[in-house]
Amino acid sequence: MKQAEGGLRERKKLQTRAALTEAALRLALEKGPDNVTVDEIAEAADVSVRTFFNYFPHKEHAILGRNPAHLERALELIRTAPDEQSPLTTMWMIVHDVLQELLSEGSLTRRGELIMTSPSLLFHLMLSSMDDERQLSEALTERIGDPLRAKLIVTSAGTACRVAVELHKTTPDSAPGDLVDAAFQLLAQGIDPDYQKGQV
Amino acid sequence: MKQAEGGLRERKKLQTRAALTEAALRLALEKGPDNVTVDEIAEAADVSVRTFFNYFPHKEHAILGRNPAHLERALELIRTAPDEQSPLTTMWMIVHDVLQELLSEGSLTRRGELIMTSPSLLFHLMLSSMDDERQLSEALTERIGDPLRAKLIVTSAGTACRVAVELHKTTPDSAPGDLVDAAFQLLAQGIDPDYQKGQV
DNA sequence: TAATAGTTTGCAGTAGGTGCAAGAATCTGC
DNA sequence: GCAGATTCTTGCACCTACTGCAAACTATTA
Fold it and tell me: Pfam families under this entry (chains A, B) (predicted)?
């Protein structure tokens, strides 16, 4: 029978994975994300290159070090949200849930800024976000019925974060959290009340 | 002195570029976008692999065959929009401008569906869209002042298109154009009037 | 037609990424 | 604590994407 959680094997895998993400992030910060090779990361984590690719499909995944638990929690938040809570409010809570953790472990600033400097990283982040998005949309559709609106709410929440981070780079005086809040507010109430379709 | 436009050299470059995108798209459709190699594309277009990379930085760019003229026209539309036209309305016109051309040349369905099947293609598209987005946001900020709102409007328009295409795949009975319109409408008026920030 | 400027190409090299099979480590039932 | 099954690691051979360089070629210009 398979040993559940506490096995040595399990722990070693977690260790290896942690060592790889740690090394990847550190080296990426030191040398710039595009100047790190998989060879270096593997060597720093003391495993073979081949093993690296057993853990991550792409170099970028190691640097991003995505936490699968975040998606789980987000889905849970959507499923257990009280009826009276509006959908975008739920999304706001999800965003802040993740944001809080990233801030508390101090990896947001390091990793976040890194991501914004590298198109390739950003790209892979978005790529892996696509699947999350799909799952979140499905969960939200389950709740509110309208699939178009559900998808728009989920993707808009994502866009709000991205826009906030980008804008924060050009105007560092405004806090990212405030920008996220402002973006959510705009999206909720409408980004253009004067819109008129079909003035062709 | 440099010959302006009609030179043989100029025409040959256009020809080569066209041959490459044509071959890339055709092969991608035949064999699936991830099973095409640059070798094949180059051979089909009767040029060397090295020449391929003189024209496109990535394989995906050839398949996407992005038309630089689209961005130019979009920027022009933003700059010359009448004062009374609301910003999202302008974005709607841009979207339909491109849509119309893609439909008329018949490449939307072929290329569009292809793109949606390949994460790699999708993300090269988004990646190159990021730069477009930046330029469009700047132009729109110029016009309406508020950079956050401008960025949100531009990115939301992009998201609307993406969501519409995705949704069209699962519910093919609704036309993509209608879905785009519905998405724009929702975004304009607000995706969640009951949103309340900070119910933590 | 000769000089010039721009294009194509082959070649050599770096790096990401995968399949396979052998060997090492862990886990299981006894 | 041991034998056998399971799982992980690793080296190796291989494919593909992509870049820099210098030589060969071709259109343009005077």
Answer: TetR_C_14 (PF17754), TetR_N (PF00440)
Convert the pLDDT of each residue in A82-94 to its tens digit: 999 999 999 999 8
Tell me whether residues B166 and A151 touch, CB distance under 8 A.
Answer: yes
* Sites in chain A below the pLDDT cut of 50: 1-3, 199-200
Q: Let me know if residue A167 belongs to a domain.
A: yes
Q: Which domain holds residue A154?
A: 68-189
Q: How far apart are CA B14 and CA B59, in angstroms?
A: 18
d(CA A158, CA A126): 10
Please indicate, yes or no, whether residues B41 and B86 belong to a single structural domain of this protein: no
Q: Do A163 and B185 count as a contact with CB atoms less than 8 A apart?
A: no
pLDDT tens per residue, range B16-32 = 999 999 999 999 999 98
For B57, phi and psi rounded to 5 degrees?
Answer: -75, -25
Q: How far is A171 from chain B (nearest CA, A)?
A: 10
Q: How far apart are CA A22 and CA A20, in angstroms?
A: 5
Instruction: Tell whether A194 is covered by a domain.
Output: no
